[in-house]
Design a protein that fits this description.
Layout lengths: L3 H6 L1 H10 L5 H42 L2 H38 L18 E6 L12 H7 L3 E2 H7 L6 E2 L2 H19 L3 E2 L5 E2 L1 H7 L11 E2 L4 E3 L4 H6 L5 E2 L6 E10 L18 E11 L4 H18 L4 E5 L11 E9 L4 E10 L3 H6 L2 E3 L5 E3 L1 E9 H11 L1 E2 L2 E3 L2 H7 L3 E2 L1
Parallel strand pairs: 4-9, 8-14
Antiparallel strand pairs: 1-11, 2-3, 5-7, 6-7, 9-10, 10-16, 11-12, 12-13, 13-16, 14-15, 17-18, 18-19
The chain binds one RNA strand of 90 nucleotides through helix 3 and helix 4.
Length: 424
RNA sequence: AGAGAGGUGGCAGAGUGGUCGAAUGCGACGGAUUCGAAAUCCGUUAUACCUGCAAGGGUAUCGGGGGUUCGAAUCCCCCCCUCUCUGCCA
């Protein structure tokens, strides 16, 4: 959520930023926010003054009662009744105005960083670099959805039977590969200075608001209505919300946490071509890295996170590229996002396996996540996160890129984690 | 899931209708003392919002919401959470 003070003091900058994100009703919304905020202040002032008078009268009445001066107390009470009417009217309207203000603020996306390229869609993303050699596979090379059947390691039909589409069952070497990747990613994160966290995978409504999944993306999460809990779409939600309503001591920064969780996404309406096999699932596994940073450090930290993720892909010997997302393609809450995509040799396309973002104060404002700045004032912190990494498309690329007639040769770094060096 | 007890400032813990934003202790911070430290002594020690150039002033917050009252941490109602016992259970 953007801060009203920023909208007020840097209106032009805000409008330019919203335009880059192709947000349509920016001008009207910003104007509405500013006038609602002014209305809010006026109401607050009126309310506080009436309340102050009422408090003073209550004190006087107390004194009169004690002194046994009933008659005078009664006359003061009459005035109190009037004030009560006033404060009631004020606070009712204030609540309405605040709600309206909040609703518009929730609609506004984060402002993009100055380095974010202009653009409307994924085609406009900036390719920063391509790393690694794309393998040359014979014409007979198979896509992963055929390989998983050939080696009987991932079974969609079984998942379909016990749950539904998009919930695969991993079997034998397929299951062990999952576990190996999770352990590998967690170990790498720990060595990079992250604290391992095992959070709940159901969260309450407040957490959904804290990181921005609610209210906008309500339909994307599975909702356990009996207890009003949501299955997390990413570990970002619980791990970032660990710090909701916290004032963090500056010397603890940056806070680095990492966690493995399954992730659940309804993906309502996003099914279509190119989503066969592991390309898109309702449940998948991911290791997420999350940092809470001082505002001055957050962009350096984003680069550090990106380097960490690239290191993982290099160790897995997967060819990848790094994209800087354009204004039209980046997420609602992000100020700057790098996407990492691995090359799928059999599908002949890039698959997104990670997204690393700086949210600046956007999430922190909702989370009320702050620190005491050098000047003694409370300041919002910056939050960042990145996938390090999401498993399904990594598995897809590993299977496709490393297929041979003799089996699938896994990269050396995974051998000890798996307990085998090839599948089949 | 049933019965009971309880939720107060960073922590512990008083306070059961009237200057209570809240005693006291601990912790933390500043200072005195000391060569330095411990001990001791003095002081400070929440957050949000409104107002003001500022100093300051005001309002709200004692799990959350609503109510009674001139006045609520304190009384009433609803919800949430924690603990103990019983039940169930990996």
């Amino acid at each position: 959520m953007l801060q009203v003070s920023v909208l007020k003091e840097h209106t032009d900058m805000v409008l330019a930023g919203l335009a880059k994100k192709h947000y349509k009703t920016a001008e009207a919304d910003v104007q509405a926010i500013l006038s609602l905020d002014q209305r809010r202040k006026d109401l607050q002032t009126g309310h506080d003054q009436a309340q102050a008078e009422a408090n003073e009268l209550a004190r006087q009445i107390g004194g009169l009662m004690k002194a046994g001066n009933k008659a005078e107390a009664e006359t003061l009470k009459a005035r109190t009744a009037e004030l009560k009417q006033q404060t009631k009217a004020h606070s009712e309207e204030l609540a309405e105005v605040e709600k309206e203000l909040q609703q518009i603020l929730y609609k506004l996306p984060n402002l993009p960083h100055s380095s974010v390229p202009e653009g409307r869609s994924a085609d406009d993303n900036e390719v920063l670099r391509e790393v690694g050699q794309k393998p040359e596979l014979p014409a007979t090379a198979k896509p992963h959805w055929e390989l998983i059947e050939q080696y009987d390691i991932i079974d969609f039909a079984l998942g379909n039977k016990i749950t539904g589409a998009g919930f695969p069952v991993y079997k034998g070497q397929g299951a062990r590969l999952q576990r190996a990747l999770i352990n590998f990613f967690l170990d790498e994160a720990r060595e990079a200075g992250y604290t391992e966290i095992q959070p709940p995978i159901l969260v309450n409504e407040a957490s959904g608001y804290g990181t921005g999944q609610l209210p906008d993306k309500e339909g994307q999460m599975y909702h356990a209505t009996a207890d009003d809990l949501y299955l997390i779409p990413t570990a970002e939600v619980p791990i970032t919300n660990l710090y909701r309503d916290e004032i963090v001591a500056a010397e603890r920064l940056p806070i680095r946490n990492a966690g493995y969780t399954p992730c659940f996404r309804r993906e309502a309406g996003s099914w279509g071509a190119h989503v066969r096999g592991l390309n898109r699932l309702h449940q998948f596994d991911k290791v997420e890295i999350v940092q809470i940073a001082h505002p001055d450090q957050s962009y350096a930290i984003l680069e550090e996170m990106l380097a960490h993720i690239e290191g993982l892909l290099q160790k897995l010997e997967l060819p990848y590229r790094v994209l800087r997302l354009c204004g039209g393609d980046m997420g609602f809450t992000s100020a700057l996002t790098y996407d990492l995509e691995v090359w799928s040799a059999a599908q002949q396309r890039w698959l997104e396996v990670s997204s690393a973002s700086n949210f600046e104060t956007y999430q922190a404002n909702r989370l009320k996540l702050r620190y005491r700045a050098e000047n003694g004032k409370m300041q919002l912190l910056h939050t960042l996160n990145g996938s390090a990494l999401a498993l399904p498309r990594i598995v897809a690329a590993l299977l496709e890129n490393n297929q041979t007639d003799a089996g699938i040769k896994l990269p050396a770094v995974l051998h000890s984690y798996c307990g085998f060096s090839q599948i089949g």
